[in-house]
Amino acid sequence: MAMTLYGIRNCDTVKKARAWLDGEGVPFAFHDYKSEGITRARLESWVSQVGWETLLNRAGTTFRNLPEADKVGLDQARAIALMLDQPAMIKRPVLDRGGRILVGFKPELYAEEVQ
Predict the structure, then answer these.
(1) Are the C-beta atoms of 81 and 40 separated by less than 8 Å?
(2) Which of 5, 6, 10, 105 is the most exposed place for a label (fewest CB within 10 A)?
(3) pTM to 2 decimal places
(4) Which residue among 5, 8, 11, 21 is the active-site one?
């Protein structure tokens, strides 16, 4: 099964996920959504699988630096618009395993899902 790891190249968690996948000999492609962008269709597919609340990175500086007016009353449409406009607001990494995704990196979950 073809896998793609989505994230931001310089993110420490993405680096850990990439190192883990390499160490386990798991083939994958890497997509840097900060430099390469992300399509609305892909983002909407992810949201339909895990929910926008899981996908939106509220802990990151990009989200924290938003004006308060942009943070209050968030709904799915506004969250998707924010993530499309600033992909750094997407939690990372996102591992796409042929249409099914994992958000974030936990070695034990990767071990269960990619072997």
Answers:
(1) no
(2) 10
(3) 0.91
(4) 11
